[in-house]
Amino acid sequence: MLRLLLSRIADVHFTPTKQAARNLIAEGIRQDRILVTGNTVVDALFLAETLIDEKRVFNDLSLNGADGGILMGNKKLVLITSHRRENIGEPLKNICKAVKELARKYKDTIFLWSLHKNIKVRNIVLEVMKTRPKNLIVTEAFTYETMVFLIKRSHVLMTDSGGVQEEAPAFGKPVIILRDTTERPEVIQAGFGFLAGCSEEKIIQIFTRIYNDTAIHKRLSRKPNPFGDGKASERIHQFLQLGRVRSFIKNYPSSAEDTLWEKGKPALKEEKK
Predict the structure, then answer these.
(1) What is the crossing angle of helices 144-153 and 40-50, to 10°?
(2) Could you give the CA distance from residue 64 to residue 58 in angstroms, rounded to a whole number?
(3) Structural domain boundaries in the chain
(4) Closest residue by Cα to residue 71 from 139, 22, 173, 168
(5) Dihedral of alpha carbons 216, 217, 223, 226, sign
(6) 139 three-state secondary structure
(7) How many C-beta neighbours within 10 Å does residue 258 have?
(8) What ranges make up the beta strands (E) of the chain?
């Protein structure tokens, strides 16, 4: 509801993808108020990557129940997160059971579950995970720096998080989506996302197919992230410096109905800074 409300009152829309722009146009938003920039979350991810300090990361891992030394070995890493309200209950229990079974099957792989703060999520995960294989590690939530490190280090990710669906493709990683649907269809269309739902059998089936498929991993390592290239903020800044846009802001609200650029004409090539 909040997102729908904001799209109705906003004067300018910076969308992460062309599909998102088409969605807004279909809802009646003016085309001259939409600029496809990519998602700023990718900008933040790449910035965080440049600031990673492995000593801090290892300290964070140790404080939250994981051995950083193990993660730096030759074993493959599978990173798991799950927190969506619609999965709380039997769906989350099924996810836990699937992960336990996969850990038993792939004994030489580290399965790392970063536990969400939601008490209902915690109670379910900790109860089902009372007994588990040694290569299945359940930890407290990590800092963003550590999460970026782990996403980059992962072989496969399993999640119901929207943010992780946008971040993992930046490092060419396949994402098993623990939901029946996703608001980010681009991740599936680009080949990075695989909808598994919350069926224990289907999660295991999809994971098994992806895990050892070297062709998938090789292909994804070369594909661009559908959610951006890390330059969204630059595009937004350039747009806000355009003469027509500066005039629009300066004279607002009397300029509220002004056209920001001609239809079909790229905004960032309209005029020089």
Answers:
(1) 90
(2) 10
(3) 2-38+231-269, 67-222
(4) 139
(5) positive
(6) strand
(7) 14
(8) 13-15, 34-36, 76-81, 109-114, 136-139, 156-159, 175-177, 193-195
Q: Which two tokens stand for residue 151?
A: 């996403």
144 CB neighbour count, 10 Å cutoff:
11
Which two three-digit tokens encode residue 61? 């891992």
C-alpha 52/C-alpha 145 separation (Å) is: 6
**Cα dihedral angle (220, 225, 230, 232), rounded to 10 degrees?**
170
pLDDT tens column, 216-268: 999 999 999 999 999 999 999 999 999 999 999 999 999 999 988 776 666 66
For the domain spanning 67-222, the CATH number is: 3.40.50.2000
Count the Cβ atoms, other than its own, within 10 Å of residue 86.
12
Is the bond preceding 253 in cis, omega lying within 30 degrees of 0? yes
Give the residues of the chain that fall short of pLDDT 50: 270-273
